[in-house]
Amino acid sequence: MPASFNPNRVTRSLLRRSRQGALATLMTGSGDPYCSLVNVATAPDGAPIILISRLAVHTKNVLADSRVSLMLDERAPGDPLEGARIMLSGKAEQATDEDRETLRRRYLNAHPSAADYADFADFSFFVIRAAGTHLVAGFGRIVDLKPEQFLTDISDAAELLAAEQGAVEHMNEDHRDALGLYATKLLGAESAEWRCSGCDPDGLDLMADGRTLRLDFPERVTTPGGLRKMLVRLADEARAKAGS
């Protein structure tokens, strides 16, 4: 396996960038496999969030047996089998009163149009608690990973998570130029109306026109002050590249 290949980082990036996935559940009664397309966001630690209706077959399945599998892929151009994908297995847990607002906020940041139905009585947020994942990232790049290898440690980041939404709104309202520089100069993306959809100790999530990017931080950030310093540092690096 090439020394430069980092399966933990590839998996973490796919989790953060993915907005749709194939959810596999077990049919009630028969136990037959059932697969459906769902929109996806991530909890602060990177665990997938889904918003599903009790009228849907997959929700009925999950409520009867919480074991699920979720496939996410990077939607590579050309042959999709040449792109990286992960098959995450675990259990789908319905949001508790304690964590629902955080899951709702992060999901709607990633899928703003879901605000039209997110609070309907038959819809519920679920988070998929991973038992492990199977990464396929090309020839010789097939790895099984444990949750601690691809999820983000948030045990020391309570201050950052409490300030996350304010930081996201501030960046989108006052620093769209910096977001554009992150996307174009640090991540090699095309110019667009890039906006921030979330942040966590490991990085920043960006979206524009249905495209998603993940900006990894060179070091972990756990406080609002640390986040400000990191974003200024990365903006300076991006401007330096723009001027070179």
UniProtKB/TrEMBL annotation:
It comes from Bradyrhizobium aeschynomenes. InterPro entries: CREG_beta-barrel (IPR055343), DUF2470 (IPR019595), Haem_oxidase_HugZ-like_sf (IPR037119), Split_barrel_FMN-bd (IPR012349). Pfam families: CREG_beta-barrel, DUF2470. Residues 9-150 form the CREG-like beta-barrel domain. This is HugZ family protein. Residues 164-234 form the DUF2470 domain.
